[in-house]
Every structure is written in C-alpha cells, then in structure tokens.
Amino acid sequence: MKNNWKKVALGGAALLSLITLAACGSSSNSASASKGTSAQIKDADKSPKLSFWWWGNDDRNQATMKQIKNFEAENSGISVEGRPSGFGNLDQVFTTQYAGGTSADVMTLMYQWVPQYGQNGGFYDLNKLSKYLDLKDNYDKAFLKTGQVGGKQVAVPYGENVMVMWVNKTVFEKNGVDVTKLKTWDDYINAAKKFPKGSYPLCSPTWRFPVTIYLQQKLNKTEFNAKGQMNYTEKDYLDGMKWYMSLVKDGVFVPRSDYLANVGSDPVSLATNKQEFTGKYAGGIGWNQGLQSDYDALKGVGDQMEIVPYPVISDAKGGANILSKPSMAFAIKKDEKNPVATAKFLNDFLNGEKANQILGTTRGVPASKSAQKALEKSGALAGFAKDANDAGKVDTMSETPFYEDGTLTSIYTDQIEAVELGKTSVKEAAHEVYTQTKAQAAKLAQQMGLK
Amino acid sequence: MKNQKVGLIYVSPWIVGFLVLTIWPMIMSLYYALTDYNMIFKPNFIGLQNFINLFKDATFMGSMRSTFIYVIFSVPLQLAFALIVAFILNFKLKGIGLFRTAYYIPSILGGNVAVGILWRFMFQPTGLVNNFLGTFGIHPIGWLSTPTGAMTSIILLKVWQFGSSMLIFLAALKDLPTELYEAASLDNASKWQQFIHITIPLITPSIFFNLIMQVNNAFQEFNGPYLVTGQGPLKSTYLASLFIYDSAFKQYNMGYASAASWVLFIVIVLITIILFATQKKWVYYSDGGND
Questions:
Q1: What gap in Å lies between CA B188 and CA A29, rounded to an integer?
Q2: Would the CB atoms of B40 and A14 count as touching at under 8 Å?
Q3: What number of C-beta contacts closer than 8 Å exist between A and B?
Q4: Residue A279: which region, alpha, beta or left (left: phi > 0; alpha: psi -120 to 50)?
Q5: Cα Rg for chain B, rounded, in angstroms?
C-alpha cells in the first residue's frame, strides 16, 4: 500500500513536470484560415467559440458584455468570450498577446498598431470577408483607409477622434467669465486674470497638443507628412514653444510643476482627478470621443461642461486645423479559423442596430452610418455626446499613426520640464525636440513601412 | 542510487520550472540583447551594438545614476529603521504581537496601486506630509514636482517597507547570549555601549544578509517609482527598471531592453561580489564563518 502511494506521488510529480513543459510550449497549432474569396471561406468549427478583447471602464464593459449576449441569442451556435481589460499597460497587454499567439479573435487596436502589426499579413485581410462584413456602404472611403496597410483592409477604424477644447462653464462663470465670449487666446489670457491663484482655465495632458495645433494653424501643415517625414523646422518648434510658454506665464495653461505635483508625470485622463472636479483645472483640450467621462464626472459634482470653439491664431493660414485621428480600430486575428462567424460578430458590433443601441456611446460615437442611425433612433446621440461629436467633424484624419507614439510624447514632456524647472532654455529645448523627433520619426516610419 | 532517482523525480517540477521559467528566459534575453528585435519581425543579429548604444544613451546612463542614488540612500535608511524597530520590539512589552504585526503590514502591502495612490495623496502640495511640516512652520515642499522631492518620496516608500529586514533582525536579537550583557553591566557599560560593542557585532551576519537582499531588491525597484512618481521631474526617478520596461513595452525595443537588463544584472553581481569581499573585515561569525 505504502509503495502504491509512492508510485502515485512519483507519477504525479512527473506529470506536473510534463504539464509545465506543455503549458510553456507554442500554441500556434491552430488551423490556418482558408485563402481565397469571401464565398469560399468557411469556418473550421460548427459551433465556433470566439473571443473579443477590448479595454475600457465599467460602463463600456457592461454594455459590451450585454451586446455579446444579444449577439449569442441572435446567432445560435456561436459563443463569444469577452476579454475586457482596463486602460493601463495596453501596449504591454497587446504586444505579449500578439507575440505569444494568444490574441483574441476580434481585438481592439490603437491607431498606431494598425501599420505596426498589420504589415506582412499581421491581421486578417477583411476584404476577403466583404460578404459578411459591411464596410462599403457604412464608411467614408477616406476614413476606412486609415485601417489599410499595403492596400489590404487589416482593421476597421471605429470613430473619428478630434482634438477639441472644453470648459467647466460653472467655474468660469463663478470667476466672472462669460464662456460664450471666449474666441481668441487673448480672451483666455484675460479670463486667466480673473481666476484665483492656483487655478487655471486650461490643462493639456501634454503640451504637444497645443503646440502642434498652433503650428498646424500657422503653417497649414501637419507635423509629419504621409511618409512620416518632418514638416516643421527647428525654428517652427521654437516659435510654437515660445507661444506656449507665454500662455503658461499668463496663467492660461497649467504649469508643468503644478501638473507634476497634483497629477503625475504621465499624460492621463483627469476625469477623476481632484484638480478637475474641484475646478482648479477649469477646462482643457482633449480627444472628443473620450470627453464623456469628464462630462459625467463634472455633472456629478453639479458643474456644467461645454465644448467651446478652438481658438484660431491671428496669422493662421488655414482654419482651426485641429488634430484628428481614428479613436480606435478593430481587427481579426491573422490565422482566424472561424472567419465567417468572427466577421458576423464584428459586423453586428460595428453596424448592428440593436447592438449599437446596447453599446450606446461607451466608445464615443462610431463612424458607421448604420450605427449612427441606430444611436439617433434610440436617443443616445444627443446632449453632450452629440455636441462632442459635432465639434469634431473634419474632412480628413490629419495625423499619422505614430503621432501619439510614447517616445515622441515624452520628448516634448522632458523638454518642457527642463524649461520650466530652469534646466534649459526654450531655444535649447526646441533644438532637442526637433532633433529627437526627427530621429524617432525616421525610426517609426521605417518600422511601419511608410513609403 | 535508487533514492537519488526518487529524489530527483520529486524535485523535477521545481527543476523544470527553474529551467523553463528562469534559465531559458535568461538565455533568450542574452540572445535578444545581441539582436535588433521588436517582437513583430524576426530578431536581427547586431552583435554588441545594443550595449555600445546603451553606454552612449544619456537616458540610460541617467537612469543608472538615479538607481544608484536610490540604492545608496534607501538601503542604509531602511536597514537602520528596521534595526531600531526590531530593537524596540525585542523588549518585553504588553501587546508586542500586535505591534510586530502592525510594523510588518507595510511589507505585505508592498508597492501596490492603493499604496501608490495613498503615497501620492500624502505628498501632494496640500497633503498630509506638508500639513504636518506646516505645524512646525515649514513651508510646503514640492515633493512630487521637484527632482529631489520626488526621489525622497520613493526612498521613504522603500524605507516604510522595512518589515522583512526587521523580522530577521528581531530573530537575531532574540538569539543573542544574555551572559555578555550581564558581564558588560558588571563592568558598568552603558546601554548604548552594550548596543554598539555587543549587539551590533553579534548581529553582523544578519546585517550582511539584509544588506545583500535589500541592495538586490533596490536595484530592481519598479513599483514605487512606477506608481508614485513615474519618471519624475527631469527623469529624476526614472530608475533602470522603468527604462527597461519602457524600452520593451512602449518602444517595442526588446533587444535594447534585454541588453539593459544584462547591464543591470552585471552591476548587481559586481556589487554583490564586492560586498562579499568586504565581509571578512566587518562580519563576525561565531563559528568563524565555517560550515
């Protein structure tokens, strides 16, 4: 009896070793997707089990889980596992899943991941699934192009994200400023004079946004061209940075030292930050599709948030020239073994009437025409959501996928800190921003295959 | 021989885990350190270029400098604090068990998100720390908005997590022979003289052990700066571990990150060797250091 137990224990130990080894092995034995046209494509499983990865807050998670249940009810035989994650460490989560071959069947992408990972068949070619995935009738051609790499539709951009300006109307009025009269930067300088010490009319999570918009207005050119080459000179950067620093000096924008002390060194959403909901940071510039959470947070403390026109500098060459890019995109795994079921799910998510009424504006306003109709019908595209969406209507997406690259953002951040903390001059900082941005842009353009 | 085989089979899960989860990743990281690898395309062999670039990279050198500052200040402070608390907890006090648990709790909490948020609140311009200092007439300090303040705040977070060192000191203090103190008392030695000339020499093996462990931990510190200060003003709290993390997962530069990891590993090994070399001069082993 004693010997038997010993054998069982030995066997168990050996089995555990094998399991450990097996678990660490590659999981790349899934069937490859069939090649060919939409009509020839078939699923490998009769009852496909799909997975969907996204990030977001609780509202978005709950709405998405509800939409998944609705899809499963309407498509018996297909089951979908929801894989939600928070906003943090998205690069790390996505990269490890992608490199480890454990990506979900349908995955959410940041704009820069489209060309970065979509090269050389990195995602499923969605053109092959046109029978099941309606992109042609629902999307603007130019907008859809932001999901293409090498002529292949590797991702579907979700919504148009445009940089807008907003203010906490309640706080501005408390300080004696009529927000309807805020048109120019001089108006903001005058408003700042009426704010108490330690309070500021505007906060930008990174000074890159206002400086770039200023230069876009002044030169009527984006920071990078379609090939990823620099459009601005060192002199341009110096001009933009001097302009921004003068606004900091006039108390319009939150100084970096205040931001560091109260928020931190990383650009983050201020929706739950004390400085914002106590009115010390009484406005800001941000991507329109992400402002709903700020609106809800301020509404929660009895304040009213409003979108205001982005000021245009006096010597602007062409309009407001604000930044624009797709808010996020959706792709299907490159070796998807159940492409038909996956395409049906993605189509329902992007274009389905009931699906979009369930999802509402938890991911901002979708660009799909069917989805917008569904939202209008349900009354979800109203109030602040509509204002934010309308404020962001632009003809083209102006920014290259790597505009928000972490290194590019930190080049600016490092330099503003050095200037504000007295370690360097604006001239030296502009030189550093120019040379470092040029080097990083060249590296990214090569990585993303921008030609 | 049969027993040896049985033993090996029993420990095989650990051996397999060690080989697969520690040795293999180390070998692979050494290989990646010699390549240009971004996790999308195949690694491209570039020899020692990553290492050469690292030593020319002002950001990496700055992060190593910050790491050394962090280690030099946090480790001695943490050990001193742990020893003082252990010394107090060694007295026969009422409810001593409760005190020991309370002082150990920060070590269990470690540098998690909640502690990070708490620390940020405490060190904000109108936070608890400045309010406390204000009662002594000290003007508010920009803890998180100045390079020195940010570094101080993460060093204090490390010092606060003194529990594990404290437990080791406490165990060492409890093992000290009482006859030495009795003899010293008969010779009219003060408590301070007893502490300096009896207690400290006798617990040097524990001090040495704690020193090695804490130096190793401090060089690899990630959670504190990541959660509380991030890079900090002027990258003042951008420790080597944050540089490695950013290179790997924000810039997708796995080869470069692997090379930086190896540089950090070599630095830790060298410092550990130096510390071991010095122990003959200051660590007292009752058995002469023999097994």
A1: 79
A2: no
A3: 88
A4: left
A5: 23
Secondary structure letter of residue A191 according to DSSP: H
Contacts for A437 with CB less than 8 Å, ≥ 6 apart: A223, A230, A408, A411
DSSP-derived pairing of the beta strands A49-55 and A79-85: parallel
> A-chain residues within 8 Å CB-CB of B13?
13, 16-17, 20
A-chain residues within 8 Å CB-CB of B252?
91, 95, 116, 447
Residue B13 to residues A27, A150, B3, B173: CA-CA distances in angstroms? 21, 47, 17, 37
> And the tokens for A255?
């100084």
Q: Which residues contact A432 (CB under 8 A, 6 or more apart)?
A: A411, A414, A415, A424
Sign of CA dihedral A193, A194, A196, A199: negative
Helix axes A2-24, B2-18, angle to 10 degrees: 30
* CA B127 – CA B121 distance, rounded (Å): 6
Query: CB-based contacts of A44: which residues, under 8 Å, 6+ apart?
Result: A31, A337, A338
A406 interaction partners in chain B (CB closer than 8 Å): 246, 250-251
Rounded distance, CA A336 to CA B60, Å? 40
Q: Measure Cα distances from A319 to A214, A285, A397 in Å.
A: 11, 17, 15
Query: DSSP 3-state helix, strand, coil percentages of chain B (rounded to 5)?
Result: 75, 0, 25
Nearest in space to A331 (alpha carbons), one of A321, A314, A319, A343: A343
Hey, is A166 helix, strand or coil? strand
The model's pLDDT over A45-86, given as tens digits with 9 standing for 90+, comes to 999 999 999 998 888 999 999 999 999 999 999 999 999 998
Question: Each residue of B59-104: pLDDT tens digit?
Answer: 999 999 999 999 999 999 999 999 999 998 888 878 888 887 888 7
ipTM: 0.72
Which residues are CB-neighbours of B222 under 8 A, at least 6 positions away?
B111, B239, B241, B242, B245
